[in-house]
Specification:
CATH topology of the largest domain in chain A: Rossmann fold
Order of helices and strands of chain B: EHEEHEHEHEH
Strand content of chain A: 15-25%
Number of helices of chain A: 7
Structural class of chain B: alpha/beta
CATH superfamily of chain B: NAD(P)-binding Rossmann-like Domain
Radius of gyration of chain A: 23 Å
CATH class of the largest domain in chain A: Alpha Beta
Largest interface: A-B, 21 and 23 residues
Strand content of chain B: 15-25%
CATH class of chain B: Alpha Beta
Largest sheet of chain A: 6 strands, parallel
Distance between the termini of chain A: 63 Å
Structural class of chain A: alpha/beta
Strand order of the largest sheet of chain A: 3-2-1-4-5-6
Oligomer: heterodimer
CATH topology of chain B: Rossmann fold
Radius of gyration of chain B: 15 Å
Number of strands of chain B: 6
CATH superfamily of the largest domain in chain A: NAD(P)-binding Rossmann-like Domain
Number of domains of chain B: 1
Number of helices of chain B: 5
CATH architecture of the largest domain in chain A: 3-Layer(aba) Sandwich
Shape of chain B: globular
Helix content of chain A: 25-40%
Distance between the termini of chain B: 43 Å
Largest sheet of chain B: 6 strands, parallel
Number of strands of chain A: 11
CATH architecture of chain B: 3-Layer(aba) Sandwich
């Protein structure tokens, strides 16, 4: 596979090294900073090229027309977006991946057809949610096209679900609890008799709009009075 | 019309002055507050310091209520990011972008933005001047 990496900062450099070590890939690492690309060229050789990864003429010169993938990982969202759009619409590159520095731009990038986005802020936030006990709801992935999502959450003491058998729980429509991991680590494919306890981890498939209801049921305090 | 202009350089400030003179309501965004000196001394519109490709800044500029958005900084990629946020996130109907690289301009014109290239315009005017002199 022929891969163009745009941006030779810390992320691009690391990516270039990893990809170069994989025998099947041909990789080119481009950066518009002359001294940075010169420095890296001494270390990595000809795979490093000085140029502007958003410019049609330059991308043509590094063979964008035959590239299978373009990955834009500079620290500037404008550069990453435009680089991927130029690759996609001018050179018909099949797969584009962009680093998103401002996590709020993620939606725009997706809407504009960038195949994958990677946000360091988003990834770290997801990790914080895993580590903080008060953040007990983690969206794992959206199931493409169905409006369903896979979520991970912990049963909270005092919630409606605590101590209840699954058959007695009023789950939102089209929701399925697929896996229960009991405290101590034993996983169980649940049935109607499975009783949820505080601290149990649940993997469930739920409609996206049912998130608040489901969250309240399993991880919310019961409404008193 | 409500108009938001990103970039208060020579092009942006000239356009802002003209549109305000014609009775439109203007907001001008620039990262450098010093650039607002280019606006006429009687400019009534709003000036906002910040990046025109930051959705929070665009929201503060009232872009969701704007009839037109112009991205006129010297950076093609900045302009294209700001313009696409204005168009796709805030739904502005008329979005005009300055793109110096003519190829890039063509790509984004095909994607529904109104682009113009100072490079092409400048070269054409220089060429026309030569033809007239001959």
């Amino acid at each position: 596979m022929y891969i163009i990496v745009v941006g030779a900062g810390t992320v691009g450099y690391g990516l270039g090294l990893e990809l170069q070590a994989m025998a099947d890939h041909e990789v080119v690492l481009v950066d518009r900073d002359r001294s940075r690309s010169g420095e890296l060229r001494e270390e990595l050789g000809e795979m490093v090229v000085h140029g502007d990864g958003t410019e049609v003429v330059f991308l043509e010169s590094v063979g964008a027309r035959r590239a299978d993938m373009l990955i834009a990982v500079t620290g500037d969202d404008g550069t990453n977006l435009v680089s991927c759009q130029v690759a996609k619409h001018w050179f018909k590159v099949a797969r584009t991946i962009a680093r998103v520095n401002n996590p709020r731009n993620e939606r725009l990038f997706r809407e504009l057809g960038i195949d994958s986005t990677v946000s360091a802020t988003g990834a770290i936030m997801a990790q914080i949610e895993v580590d903080l006990p008060e953040h007990t709801f983690i969206p794992l992935m959206k199931l493409h096209g169905s409006g369903l999502q896979l979520v991970d959450l912990h049963v909270i003491a005092g919630s409606e679900a605590e101590g209840a058998a699954l058959r007695s729980l009023h789950l939102p429509e089209n929701s399925i609890i697929s896996l229960v991991v009991h405290e101590g680590g034993s996983p169980e494919v649940p049935n109607g008799d499975t009783v949820l306890r505080a601290g149990d981890e649940i993997i469930a498939v739920i409609p996206q709009e049912a998130e608040p209801e489901f969250r309240h049921l399993v991880a919310g305090a019961t409404v008193s009075g | 019309m409500r108009v938001v202009i990103m970039g208060c350089g020579r092009v942006g400030s000239t356009l802002a002055a003209r549109l305000e003179h014609e009775g439109n309501t203007l907001t001008v965004i620039d990262t450098d507050p010093y650039s607002f000196r280019r606006l006429p001394s009687d400019f009534q519109g709003e000036t906002l310091v910040g990046s025109g490709y930051d959705d929070h800044v665009l929201e503060a500029a009232g872009v969701h209520e704007a009839d037109a958005f112009f991205a006129l900084t010297q950076g093609d990629n900045r302009n294209l990011l700001g313009a696409q946020i204005a168009k796709h996130i805030f739904g502005v109907k008329v979005v005009v972008v300055r793109v110096s690289d003519p190829f890039r301009g063509e790509i984004f014109a095909n994607l529904g933005l109104r682009t113009f290239s100072p490079t092409n315009i400048g070269a054409q005017m220089a060429y026309d001047a030569l033809i007239r002199e001959q």
